[in-house]
Every structure is written in structure tokens, then in C-alpha cells.
Amino acid sequence: MPMKKIFLLHENKDWSRPLEMALAEIDVPHNDWYMVDRVINMSLAPPDGIFYNRMSASSHFRGHRYAPELTSGLLAWLESNNRLVINGSNALRLELSKMVQYSALKEVGIKSPRTIAATNDSGILEAGEFLRYPIITKHNRAGKGLGVKLFQNEIELKEYVYGGKFEPSIDGITLIQDYIKAPNSCITRVEFVDKKLLYALRVDTSDGFELCPADTCEADSPDKMKVDSSASKSIKNPKFEIIEGFTSLPISQILIPRMERLMQNIGIDVASFEFILDKDNNAFVYDINVNTNYNYQAERRSDISGFTAVANFLCQVSKC
Description:
Elements: E1 6-10, H1 13-25, E2 30-34, E3 50-53, H2 67-80, E4 84-86, H3 89-95, H4 98-107, E5 115-118, H5 121-131, E6 135-139, E7 149-151, H6 154-162, E8 174-178, E9 186-193, E10 196-204, H7 222-228, E11 240-242, H8 250-266, E12 270-277, E13 283-289, H9 296-299, H10 306-318
Parallel strand pairs: 1-2, 1-3, 3-4
Antiparallel strand pairs: 5-8, 6-7, 6-8, 9-10, 9-12, 10-11, 12-13
């Protein structure tokens, strides 16, 4: 049987390029479907093939405001025509809303920080009073840690909400959360391919909350380029580092089966989960990334490649 073509649905060419290279390396036929200003003729049947959804919640940050909505409609069209979609409609729904993510986490017994959703200024302030400080605010629909702010008291929060620097979420929903302080200023990102653990990544958060692992994210601004070329970002003290022996840790033995169950429940094949440990070693998952990226600097110090693993998974699926 000939291999089925893989269609890559995305809005970020820089993020898509490494996967296309990995697919080409093992001769998997594929086609790029760039979901920006695309025409979808729903009166026709979709082409035969396998469709891999990599739409990002942060697309608006790159000027692609309506790419997720267009992709949502396209996925419904594909699924109604019985096309095989990797990370389909339910996965995209979860990608675009942290409220949806936290509900899914609760169903499988995974803790997330106490969270209140608000759509107006007074609601944000009431949430801060209820949770008690310190608290963080974040966007319900975001990515790369966009919109994450830490507040130590009500005065700071009021200045932000009523000042000129308030950043509204693109969907109008601001989340207010307990601030979980990690004793070592690190979070853990757990990567899955084909619903199976690939590896866990330790991420240094001492420089802030924008934690996108894609190598292109490291050069989004001149300031970041200066920081990343400094001694603090040397190989000796990397921002991203694969954790050796992660599966032997007690916390992983609790979390991994529950994360796998969530992926099964929603219909997710490729994803990452980000969690933080508090001073008592309690794990709180605060983000699920269905459009996951991988960090070359971390991977080259090991024998694992995320995009190679995804390409091999798609290769196996395309032979069905």
C-alpha cells in the first residue's frame, strides 16, 4: 500500500520547517497547509491523506488573529468527511483555552493552581482579593507565556489593571491564579508523542515566564538575543535541559499515567504538559501545549529528537 500524504496545518513557517525536514529525511510525502488567508471550498471533498493540526494559541501574536477559527472550521470539515486528523477538533479546543485545560486536568486527578476567570476590571480585582497575594494574571488564550504577570499586593494589581500597560487576552478572558513559587526557579515540561512519554525538560524561569522552547523563540527580540549570548545562557547553565532518569522520580509515576489518560480522553497524540513543584513537592500543571515545539540546544546534548519522533510517528500512521 502506498503511504498516505501528511498535510501539516499551521500558521508559523519557522515552527513547521524542522518537522518538514524530519519528514523529508525519512521520505514521508507531505504537504504544507499554511492556515493564513486560506480558501476552503467545503463543497468539495478534502484530499485523501492524514492531517496533522499544529495550530497555535499564540497565532494572534504573529498577526494571524483568525487562523485558529479558520482551522477549527477546517477540522470540522475534515472530520465530517472521515479524514484522519491528528490532534483534531477537541485538541484544538483545549489548546485555545486554559479554562478547558484545567477542567480536563481535574477529570484525571491532576492539580492545577486555583484559578478565577474574569472579563472585566472589577472581576480581576475581586479575584485577587479572594485568592490573596501573591497572585499571577495570564491570558486564557495565549502561548509562550504571553500576558503572565506577578503581583505581590492589591496596589500593584490596581496600577496594572487601571494603568496603560494592561494586556487583555485575545478572547477577553483574564485568568487570576495562585502564584506557585518553585524553590529552584524551574518548571518541568513533559513531552509526549503517540501518547507516550518522550522526555521531560527542565526549564529555568529566572529570566521570566516566556518559556517557548522553539529555537526561533530565542531570537524574537534584540534584548533576548543579548541575553541568550551571555554567560548565563551558556551550555554550563542552559535554559532548557533534558532530565535524566525522570521516569524513576515518584512524581512522574503519579503524573505520567494521568497525563496519558487525559490525552486518551480528549483525543491528543502529540502534546506537552508544563508543571511546577511547590516547596512541599506538590505538582501543579498550569499549561498543556497541543502545538508543541522542541529545543535543539537541549536535544543535541542527548540522543533524542522531538521532531524526528513526531516524523516517525506520522510515518507509521501514514502506512495504515
